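Blinded run. Sample ID left blank on purpose so nobody reads anything into the name before looking at the predicted structure. Input follows.
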Amino acid sequence: MTTAVQLKTRELKPGFGAEILDVDLARADAETLAGVVDTFHRHGAILLRGQDMMPQQLVDFVALFGEPEDHTQKQFTLPGHPKVFVLSNREVDGKPIGAHNDGVGWHTDYSYKAKPVMCTMLYAVEVPDEGSDTLLADGCAAWNALSPERQKELDGLRLHHSYQHFMATREFGRQELSEELKRDNPDVEHPLIRTHPADGRKALWPSTGTVTEVVGMENPKGLELVDELVEFMTSEPFVFRHKWQVGDILMWDNRCTLHTGTLYDDTKYFRTMHRLWAKGDAPY
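Blinded prediction complete.
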């Protein structure tokens, strides 16, 4: 069994996340990599700057956290590397090489799946001089900030998630699903308050886009509650804003966070990121 080493870190924001310092992932030994994984599970998100990673190295790295997950949309995966999804506004021969403005709006990845992804990793290939920040919201801090009475009201509520609803209503790139995608992505229900399997900590776990109702609560009251909780969780005290540099690797734990991308001037700048996921388990 590999023993995790103690790494040099600093908080991304008070009480949340960790920037891991002085680690070159492409050359790190097994003990150091085990320390990176351990830091991730304890802090909700990790950042490593100045990395130089080839696509297969990214796949091998994310595999340390769990089995790499496939992508629902296949057309923007990196040729030869189906686990690597490209986010970009670049075009080659008149065709986009990646998904543009993907991930804008507070959400948690694969919330429409019975087993949402455990972690998301972004690797910065090219970044704009301004804009395109990624924001992470700490669901554990938001949950802990609620009164015991409010916690009691919310604990046990379940949300109905729908990929078909999300793709039909999202702001960027609305899409009518094929019968195959409908079959492969049936609607699911998940708890509003999620328990982290690592240590039992609880997190507020709403989302936007995929949620159609609070189970057992009539709309609009149910969706108004979800909107209220998303607004609370994504308020300034609970949010870390990441400003990208080329070579950054940012990973976050989808079991206890929400995230969103932000817009940038795509007539002036190019942005290219590689996104990878590790498989998760059923929320409880």
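Unblinding after everyone has recorded impressions. The chain has one domain: 9-278.
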